[in-house]
Structure formats: C-alpha cells, structure tokens
Amino acid sequence: MKKKTPVKSEGKQARIFAYVRVSTVKQDLDNQVLEINQYCDREGLKVNGWIKVEISSRRSKEDRGIVGLLDGLKSGDTLIVSELSRLGRSLKEILEIVNELIKKHVRFIAIKQNMIINGRNDMGTKVMIAMFGLLAEIERDLISERTKNGLARARAQGKRLGNPRFDLDNRRNKEEAQAYAESMRPVLEGFMSQGMSQRQMVSELNRLGVRARRGGRWSLVQLQHVINRLQPQERNTGHSVRKQRVRRERG
To answer: Comparing 236 with 184, which gets the higher pLDDT?
Structure first.
C-alpha cells in the first residue's frame, strides 16, 4: 500500500480543516461529514478542525463562516469540502474563494469533483482557475439570457415594466403597486430559479436597465417590497415565486 505523505507547512505539520454546510436538513450535514471522513481514511489524512454551518447559501460569506475560515487559514494548511457547492452560491463566488485560498498557499480539496488544488500558483492551477472563470462567465450569460427572455414574455403578455403612473389616492396606489409587482413576477421567478440572492437580483436589474416602480434604480428595500407583495398571491393563485424572508443582507 502506498504511503501517504502529509502536507508540511513551513517546517511543521500542516493543519487540515473540513467545511460542511447545509440549509436545514441535518441528514445532509451528516452525509458530508461521512464523505469527508471516508476520504481522509483512504488518503491517510486527519482532520484537525471542523467548521459546521447550518444556514442558507443565500446568506453572506460572513454569515456562512467563510470570512472567518479564510482569515484563520495559514500557508500550507488544507481545506476539504464534500463538493464545490458547499463553498458558495455561484461559480463566481466559488472562484473568488478559491483564488483567495491560492493567494494564502492553502491546499484545497473538493471530493465530489475529484479536485485538488495544491496551493501553489503553478501551470496546473492556472489552467483550472481559467476553466472556473470560463464557467462563471457562461453562468452569468445564461442568467442574463433567462432574464431577458422573462422580460420579453412579460412585455408580450402586455405587462408594463418600468414606471406605471400612479396618483395620491391610496387605493389606486396600492392597486398599481400590486400590478407592478405582478409584472415583475416572471423576471423574479427566473432569478430565484438560479438561486440568486436579493443583492444579486438588484444588481442584475440595474445592469439590464429595468426601472424600479418610481422610475429610478433598484435598491434592496424596493426589491423586498415587490417580493412581499407577491407572497400573499401564492396562496390564492399558485404562482411559483418562492417566499424570501425580508432582511437587510450584509455585504
């Protein structure tokens, strides 16, 4: 049997950390722990510390423990995850995290993808990062295309996107606000199907030039108002816009 050589860190034994994350289901957390333990048994590795987080991927990197994890990792350390999706909510975010690991000379292992990045900025690592960047660009283009298609469908159905007129009459104002929210439903459904955070939705709407209800640029609060108006309609109409807890996301 081939003898495994532990990673060395500046003349001393390197530390190995495992990061596991789930939204709500504890069984999935246990499965990730099992996969990592089985991998380490096969490779002759020993995990020195576990970072276990039960929180949605839509929360910020700080909330998900990523910021603290990156700050604590040192040159020569190893980070293990069961799969890439545990790290971030999009390829772009995962790429940013992996680049940070490389800068810190941290070895990175994603078991499901059979990916091992040795923590050095050599040719193999550069090729892998280039592929990540290409995939992130493709993902961004697909989201943009789906958004444009959603806008086109809304316009084809006669729905107005942008700045519907409204007066000071409270009842009419509410009706127009609800109508505007409904006009945005197909667009927001497209965003949510991609797992985009509310901040990402705001950024994409502004990038595409879609005006908020009063004609200006979108803000997080404006988006949350629209989502809140759509939520009660789910029970009555069966529309697929999923509930999102209104909160101010930290950057």
So the answer is: 184
Q: Judge residue 195's burial from the number of C-beta atoms within 10 Å of its C-beta, 0-12 exposed, 13-18 middle, 19 or more buried.
A: middle
CATH code linked to domain 14-121: 3.40.50.1390
69-79 tens-digit pLDDT: 889 899 999 99
Q: How many CB atoms lie within 10 A of CB 46?
A: 11
Q: What is the 3-state secondary structure (H, E, C) of the chain?
A: CCCCCCCEECCEECCEEEEEEECCCHHHHHHHHHHHHHHHHHHCCCCCEEEEEECCCCCCCCCCCHHHHHHHCCCCCEEEECCHHHCCCCHHHHHHHHHHHHHCCCEEEECCCCEEECCCCCHHHHHHHHHHHHHHHHHHHHHHHHHHHHHHHHHHCCCCCCCCCCCCCHHHHHHHHHHHHHHHHHHHHHHHHCCCCHHHHHHHHHHHCCCCCCCCCCCHHHHHHHHHHHHHHHHHHCCCCCCCCCCCCCC
Instruction: State mean pLDDT over 237-246.
Output: 42
Q: What is the pLDDT of residues 125-178, one digit of tens each?
A: 666 666 665 565 656 666 666 677 677 777 677 666 655 543 444 566 777 777
Give residue limits of the domains in the chain: 14-121, 140-237
Catalytic residue at 23?
Answer: yes
Say whether pTM exceeds 0.90: no
Q: Choosing from 9, 23, 75, 144, which is the catalytic residue? A: 23
Q: Which two tokens stand for residue 189?
A: 């459904």
Beta carbons of 110 and 83 less than 8 angstroms apart = yes
Tokens of 248: 């101010």
